[in-house]
From TrEMBL:
Its main location: membrane. GO terms for cellular component: plasma membrane. It comes from Peribacillus muralis. This is Putative hemin transport system permease protein HrtB. Keywords: Cell membrane, Membrane, Transmembrane, Transmembrane helix, Transport. The chain crosses the membrane at residues 15-36, 246-268, 288-315, 335-355. Part of the ABC transporter complex hrt involved in hemin import. Responsible for the translocation of the substrate across the membrane. It is found in: Cell membrane. It is a multi-pass membrane protein. Residues 20-218 form the MacB-like periplasmic core domain. Belongs to the ABC-4 integral membrane protein family. HrtB subfamily. Residues 248-358 form the ABC3 transporter permease C-terminal domain.
Length: 367
C-alpha cells in the first residue's frame, strides 16, 4: 500500500480523472437501481407486501388477476392440512369521482376481509367494516390529489358512493394507488360479475409452505391453477418488461465499468513499464508490485463508491415529487460490493502486464 499511496499522491490529476469516471459510473448504477426498485414498488407493492405465499386463480385467465373469476366455495376445498390460511381476493381497475369535486382518479380496487390476513395495515383512521357498505381504506398517495379522512368518492361505472375511513401506505398495483373495500362492496361495482355466481371472487390467497406446493396443486379441481407470489408479480402488466430493461442497463453498466477501469490502469501500467523494471531490478518481486496495483485500484474504488453513494442520496432530494425511487441500504451494499469486484477484475490486465516485465529489458530501455 505504501507504493500505491505514494503513486496516488504523486499523480493527483491523473487519478482524479479516473476517480471521476468511477464516481459517475457508480452514481448511474445506484440511480438506475433506485429507479428500478421504485418502479417495481409502484407497479406491485400491494402484492409484494401481501401476506400470501400462493394464489389460486382461474386457469384460463392467463395469470391475469383482473381476468380471473372463481368461486369462494373453493375455500372449503382448500382446507387441506398443508394450507395454513386461505382468503378471497377481489380486484378490478376503477375511476373514482371525488364527491364535491371534478377530480377523477384511476385506482385499483382490492377487496378482502377487513380483519383478515390480506387486510392492509392502517396508518391513519380505521379499517373498513365487513358488514357495512360504503367504507374504504385508500393508499396515502390519494392525499396528493386532495383526499382526506371522511371524504367520499363515487365509482364512475356503478355510481356507488364510498367513504374513506382509513389510509394505508405502500399499496400500489399496476402503477395505480390501491383502494381496499369489503368483498360485498366490490361485487356491487364490478360489472364483470353480473353473469357470474354471487359468491365469485378473483382469486384465493393462500399461506402454506413451498414443500406442499405439488400436493395442493394436485388437489385443486379442474379449471383453476396455483401461482407462487413471484409468478403473480411477473404476470402484472409491464412488470417483467420494466424490470428486464432496467436490469439489462445495470448489467451493461457493470461491464462498461470493468472495461473502462481495465483500459485506464493498463495504459498507466504501460507508461510505468520502465519504473516497474527498475523496481524489479532493485529486488521488488511481482507479487509486491501486484499488491500495490490492486491496493491502488481498491483504495480508489472505495473512496469513489462512498462519494457516489452520498451523491445518490443527495440527488434524491432534488428529484421531482412522485418520481418512483427506492434505494434500500441492503441494495447499496450489494452493488457497492459488486463494483469493488468489478474494479478488481479491471486490474487483472495490468497485473498480467507487470508479470511480463523483464527487469533487464526495462533497465536497457532506461539507459
Amino acid at each position: 500500500m505504501f507504493l500505491a499511496i505514494r503513486e496516488l499522491k504523486h499523480s493527483k490529476l491523473r487519478y482524479l480523472l479516473i476517480g471521476l469516471i468511477i464516481v459517475l459510473v457508480a452514481l448511474l448504477v445506484f440511480i438506475i437501481s433506485g429507479l428500478a426498485n421504485g418502479l417495481s414498488s409502484d407497479n406491485a407493492s400491494s402484492i409484494q407486501n401481501m401476506k400470501a405465499d400462493y394464489f389460486v386463480m382461474e386457469h384460463d385467465s392467463k395469470n391475469k388477476l383482473n381476468r380471473s373469476i372463481i368461486s369462494m366455495d373453493m375455500l372449503e376445498e382448500l382446507r387441506e392440512p398443508e394450507v395454513q390460511t386461505a382468503e378471497g381476493l377481489g380486484q378490478m381497475m376503477a375511476t373514482l369521482n371525488k364527491i364535491g369535486s371534478n377530480e377523477k382518479t384511476e385506482v385499483t380496487i382490492f377487496a378482502t376481509n377487513g380483519r383478515g390476513i390480506l387486510a392492509p395495515e392502517v396508518m391513519e383512521g380505521t379499517s373498513y367494516d365487513d358488514k357495512k357498505q360504503g367504507e374504504a381504506v385508500a393508499d396515502r398517495s390519494l392525499k396528493e390529489v386532495g383526499y382526506k379522512l371522511g371524504d367520499s368518492f363515487q365509482d364512475e361505472l356503478s355510481g356507488k358512493v364510498f367513504t374513506i375511513v382509513g389510509f394505508t401506505e405502500n399499496q400500489s398495483y399496476s402503477h395505480a394507488p390501491v383502494v381496499y373495500m369489503n368483498v360485498a362492496g366490490w361485487r356491487e361495482i364490478n360489472p364483470v360479475l353480473k353473469n357470474h355466481a354471487k359468491n365469485s371472487i378473483s382469486a384465493l390467497a393462500v399461506q402454506m409452505d413451498a414443500k406442499d406446493e405439488e400436493t395442493i396443486r394436485e388437489a385443486l379441481p379442474d379449471g383453476v391453477t396455483l401461482l407462487s407470489k413471484d409468478e403473480m408479480l411477473q404476470s402484472i402488466p409491464g412488470f417483467k418488461e420494466e424490470q428486464a430493461t432496467l436490469t439489462m442497463m445495470i448489467a451493461f453498466l457493470f461491464v462498461i465499468a470493468a472495461f473502462v477501469l481495465a483500459v485506464f490502469f493498463y495504459v498507466i501500467t504501460l507508461q510505468k513499464t520502465n519504473q516497474f523494471g527498475v523496481l524489479k531490478a532493485l529486488g521488488a518481486n511481482t507479487v509486491y508490485l501486484a499488491k500495490s496495483i490492486v491496493g491502488q485500484v481498491m483504495l480508489l474504488a472505495v473512496v469513489c463508491i462512498v462519494i457516489s453513494v452520498a451523491l445518490t442520496y443527495g440527488v434524491t432530494l432534488i428529484m421531482p415529487e412522485g418520481m418512483p425511487f427506492e434505494l434500500r441500504p441492503d441494495l447499496v451494499i450489494k452493488y457497492s460490493l459488486l463494483l469493488l469486484v468489478v474494479s478488481a477484475l479491471g486490474s487483472i490486465l495490468s497485473l498480467y502486464r507487470v508479470a511480463k516485465i523483464d527487469a533487464l529489458d526495462a533497465i536497457g530501455r532506461v539507459s
